[in-house]
Amino acid sequence: MRSWPEVSVPTVAGNGPRLRLYDSAADEVRPVEVDDRATMYVCGITPYDATHLGHAATYLTFDLVQRVLRDQGTEVRYVQNVTDVDDPLIERAERDGIRWEDLAVRETDLFRSDMEALRIIPPAQYLGAVETIDLVVDAVSKLLDSGAAYRLEDGTGDIYFDISADERFGYVSRYDVPTMLAYSAERGGDPDRTGKRNQLDPLLWKGKRDGDPSWPSAIGEGRPGWHIECAAIALAHLGEQIDIQGGGEDLRFPHHECSAAHAEALTGAAPFAGHYTHAGMVGYQGEKMSKSLGNLVKVSELTAQGVDPMAIRLALLHGHYREYREWTDDYLHVSEKTLSLWREAVRRPIAPSADCMLAKVRECLSNDLDTDGAVAAVTEWATAKPLHNDSGMSVQVVKHAVDALLGIAL
After folding, report:
1. What is the model's pTM?
2. Residue 402, phi then psi, degrees to nearest 5
3. Residue 349's pLDDT band (boundaries 50, 70, 90)?
4. Which of 159, 210, 272, 296 is most buried by its number of CB atoms within 10 A?
5. Which CATH architecture has domain 20-284?
6. How far, CA to CA in Å, does 407 sit from each of 8, 9, 328, 392?
C-alpha cells in the first residue's frame, strides 16, 4: 500500500536534548533510550469514515515524536498499518450499500490527503491488513504450534490466543481484570464468547462466514484478528523489540496489551516496546469524538471550508497530548490569529535574535512534548522588540525551527 508524499524537513543547526516521553507501562516520563536509530510503530485507521480531529491529534503526536528524535540526531524507522478488513468496516459498507473494498480504498485515500495537508511525516512502510495476511497466517501457525493459541471447538474455525501463555499479560495497561473485561466488551473483544479458555483471550483468526470476506490459508479459510495484525507487521518490519509503540489512549487495552502479548509469545523477547505511549482523546460537544456518536469534526471538511491546514495543526497543539481535550471553534480562531502573527513576524525588516526561542522550543518538546510551552516560545519571539538588525539570520532560524520541530510552514 502506498503512503503519502514525503515531507521536506529543514535542518536546524545543532541538536536538541534527548527526548523524555511518558511510558504507560512504567507510568512515568522517562528518556527514550536510543542512539543513532529508533523504531516506532503507530497503529493506523480502520478506514470506514473520514479523518476526524481525534485521529489527526494522535498522528500529530507521533509526528512530533519523530521530529524531536530527528532533531536529536536519531534516524527513525516508522511503520504504520491500515486495518482495511474488519467488522466495523464491513458493517459500515453494508449499511451504506457499498463494497467494503471500495469503502476502504476511498477512506484510505482521504486519510492520505489529510495527512499530507497537515504535513505529517509519512511512515517508511504503510501496510494494509489484506496485503499482510501471509504474515498473520505465519504468526498464528507458530502460536498454535507452541500451544499459545487454540482452536474453538464449535466448528467456526476461529482461533484464539491463550493469555496464560504470557505471564506478563496486563503490564502494558496496568488495568485490573474487571476493567480489562469492560474495555474488551466495549472495544471489539468478545469476553462472553462460549468456549474460550479465558474471557480475555483475543481472537487471532476468524473462520469463514457466509457473506464475510475470507482467504484460504494453512490455518483454514478466514481473516485476521485485529491485534495479531499489528504484531505481525511490526515484527516483520521493525524487529523483535521496538522503541516506541504509539496510538490513541483507547488502544491501551485491549489492542496494545494483546499485540504486545502476541509479539512476546512469538519471539520470547520482552518487553515488546521500550515505550508504550498513548495520545489522549479529543472531545466535541461534551463527548469523546467518535464515529459511533457521530460528533465528528473532520479535517477534510475544515480544509474544504478554506481553513488553512497549518491553523488546524496549530490548534491541535493546544493542551498536552496525553490529556483529554475538548475541541472548540475558539481554538481554531485563536490559532488562525497566532499563525498570522508568526507569519507577519518573519516578514519584518528587523527581527529579534532567535537563539533563546530555539533553545526553549527544543527544551519544551523534549520534555514529554510540551507543545503549549513551545508555541508560547515562538509567540514570545514574534511579539518581542527587535534589538538588532540581524533579521535575515533570525528569521531563517525561526522558519526552519518552526517547520522542523512543530511541522508548521510559515
Report:
1. 0.96
2. -65, -35
3. confident
4. 272
5. 3-Layer(aba) Sandwich (3.40)
6. 10, 8, 22, 21
